[in-house]
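dude i think i finally got it to work??
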Amino acid sequence: MAARTTVLAIACSAAVLVTGCASLTPPAPVEPIAGVSVEHYRGRFSVRYEQNGEARNTYGNFDWQQNGENATVQLLDPLGQTQAIVRESPRRASLELPGKAPLSGPRLEDVMRDALGFALPVDGLRYWLHMQGAPGSQASIERDPQTQRPIRLKQDGWTIDYQAYFDGTPLRVKRVDLSRDLDGSPLAVRLVIDE
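look at this
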């Protein structure tokens, strides 16, 4: 799942939903790479954060496609209008907002920080939605003693609470809450995956 990009997309929506009613043209479907499976997720998100000491909220829908290391995330407002498009590859990240020149850079976190003034856990979320720690740092996972399903993961200052799962096999996350308080600036993200 293109979790890294989804989180950026979620954060970007905070800025996007304030920009007005302008909309972007939806992105073309991700072209498959031979031997690599395309992951496709649709769902809803909400973000609570602080900006300049003021509490803010934003919400909407997302459409996320990932093909190996390449991801495209489309953010939609509650009425279904495309409000942001995020693209990421190993060498480049870009963010398109209505009525503005695209922002780009080598790292997704930097593009997000430049656009929004804060960064989300784009590198970790891709793994966290698969109920595992991201490579490169220590992670701890708490499991339900009866079902052995993950209920909480902690890594890099983030707490990831697994709230609901889809029925069936393999085990897939349906709802996840992420939270972090960095330097007195709380940030909370909720993702609900519809498919």
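The chain has one domain: 3-119+161-193.
im so relieved honestly
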